[in-house]
Amino acid sequence: METRIVRPEMSGASACCLNAPAHVDTMISVKVPLVPGQGVDFPYLSTIVALLTCPLNRMGPVTSDHRRITGNPAIALLGVVLAFLSFSSLAFAQTLSENITLSGEIRVRGEADNRTSGTDPDAATLLRTRISLFATPSSKVSAFIQISDSRIFGEELNTLTDASADRLDLHQAYLAWKPWSDVTLRIGRQELAFADQRLVGTVNWANVTRAFDGLKATVDRGSWTLDAFAMVLTENDATLATGLNPRQNEGEDTDRTFFGTWFKRGPVELFALADRNASTAAFDNIDRYTLGAQGVHTLGSLSIKGMAAAQLGRQTPTAAARQDIAAYMLTGNVSYALQGELRPTLAVQADYLSGDKSPLDDTHSTFNTLYATNHAFYGYMDLFLAPSSQTGFLGLFDTMLRASVRPGPWTVRSDLHRFQLGRKAPSGERNIGVELDVTAGRVLAPGLTLLGGFGVFEPNSGAAAAGLGDDNLQWAFLQAMVRF
Hints:
The two termini are 29 Å apart. The chain has helices at residues 13-16, 45-53, 65-70, 73-99, 387-390; strands at residues 2-6, 27-32, 40-42, 100-114, 122-138, 141-152, 168-180, 183-190, 212-220, 224-234, 239-240, 243-244, 256-265, 268-278, 283-299, 302-317, 323-337, 345-353, 363-364, 396-405, 411-421, 431-445, 448-459, 473-483. The protein is mainly beta. It has an 18-stranded antiparallel beta barrel.
């Protein structure tokens, strides 16, 4: 650590301080070695000194250069702090540089929206800002903190008076411990994402993304991996600002919880998920259990992927007796990478979510996609973010054709979806409509990416049963993101 005393021209707070004596133009410059062998100069300590000493200036002038530095109590206190830094900065900087990593993200997306039938188009700009800190106090212990702010341009009517930061949140905060080399325990608020996120995902496309509160244990043996987790989604116990209310315990059985296991060995994945004490607008006391498997097989440039899942359990409709759950999901994807300068890829995909013509009878047969990233599978226009309820519980059958090319630094992709109800509507109709999505993206500079696209939807005779009108719908976006 290096300390220098210089006498620059008085400026800033020094010049503005009333009755400032001659000694306030003394600047203390401190170089602290945040990284071994380097340093950061802090020349503006003169401003701090001036602010600290202004109230004491009226006590009378000082005459010696020595007293200009040491005679004032505020300067003496600052000297003690600087002396402490001289002994501690090297050790602190070493820890900061080797064990703590700071990262962040700023994402801006403008959207032109004409996805609501019978209304005029609209437009809005979304902003998401994130700051993340990852620390490794030791080889077996780590911690992660992520603060996220999500907002829409103009939603605060007056930024001078509205400083509430309505969507500033602790997105993730967890600690991790490795008691053994192949076992990791992670507890706290954290993201969960398994396989291709058809059942559990983060929904990173959204301006506010998903995280869970709880514990996850991971066993990684190299050839296979097992994740087991237990999350609390709704705490129904009586709470105070300081914690639980000891006089109003509600009982843990009323809390909404989500737990399960996910096993992966090579191209095969097996899972068992439990969603307990869930509720929706139409159902209460939902105890839903999802079992299934996913597999991937590659033959040269050909890739085949499929998933099958079954749902069992019990739930209570808001206007009927308690019923059983018996539903299923089947998905398949075949893609082929062609040779050529544009590196084209062709793919066909099908997703079937079972439905129910009589959702309030003894057995409910509509499949629920749980906590999936549905944006990635059922059209970028997000007309089916909640396919079970948005199809009137009739289910969804989506077939998609995809083509992509990569000219130079760009990646261009088009998806053509044909949406059908899983079961025929009471009117006999089944065809919902067709959606075309086109996107293009590239890296503009290191750390900066650009992505844009548009979507169009043409309804068919079954659109009304899915809550959609008779109008053609359009949507477009342009997004820039910086990560550091």
